[in-house]
Amino acid sequence: MSVHNENLRRVTTHRLLEMKKRGEKISMLTAYDFTMGTIVDNAGVDVILVGDSASNVMCGNTTTLPITLDQMIFMAKSVVRGVKRALVVIDMPFGTYQGNSKEALASAIRIMKETHGDCLKLEGGEEIIESVKRILTAGIPVMGHLGLMPQSINKYGSYTVRAQEEAEAEKLIRDAHLLEDAGCFAIVLEKIPAKLAERVASELTIPVIGIGAGGGVDGQVLVLHDMIGLTQDFSPRFLRRYANLQEIMNGAIQNYVDDVKSGDFPNDSEQY
Ligand code: KIV
Q1: In ligand 1, which atom is closest to the CA atom of 30?
Q2: Protein residue whose Cα sits closest to atom 1 of ligand 1
Q3: Which residues contact 5 (CB under 8 A, 6 or more apart)?
Q4: Superfamily for 3-241?
Q5: 30 phi and psi, to 5 degrees?
Q6: Ligand 1: which of 211, 222, 230 to mutate, most ligand atoms within 8 Å of CB?
Q7: Domain boundaries, the chain
Q8: Is the shortest distance between the CB of 211 and ligand 1 below 6 Å?
Q9: What pLDDT is attached to residue 169?
């Protein structure tokens, strides 16, 4: 599906709020480079996330922790060049906003100046609220991220469903309100019980985007490489695969190798 003309208007944080009010679901996918950013934007996705999942998907790390500010800026710049309609959100990488709100603001300003992206996403609630508030004072829109927060994987010890116990669920609800009250324009909820996510979405006025958080929220986000089957070793219950591009690429590359070996490629019309 390509974008219809009436939908060519740029997506803004304000438009996402309107969508929530109208009950129109928000679609969000990751992209880490110019080509993928262009494809995802042309297909009509509302929000493109330059996620720090690039640490796993693009760099081959086992966690999101090692990716650097420079690497995120490099990728975000490339994505932004390819996007005409979607709102581009950029993840602040681990170590650039926790603990020191002045450093958080400096990192945020660097990302916005160098990438020309639209807004930033930070993981956490109460613990990082000073950083969130300080970034907002500079007029930079912030998306929150609660539930499973991959930058805290060393604290959790595993990627299992979060907030199943009452105490953690209550803290998540408090954090969600704290982020909304601070001025965040939206929140991502990752891998939590669907009922809890639905409750948060109904209590907040800002959009709640889920990943592994059920259908009772205001929108959905997936990692592009997972949903088009470029990655194969990650199969959580919440992931729906819409294509198997790894199989298609394998076939194409094997055919190319065969054609080169046999001398079939290039043929007479493929040379000068
Ligand atoms: O980095 C990422 O891709 C994310 C999504 C999983 C929401 O934060």
Answers
A1: 3
A2: 51
A3: none
A4: Phosphoenolpyruvate-binding domains (3.20.20.60)
A5: -85, 160
A6: 211
A7: 3-241, 244-272
A8: yes
A9: 98
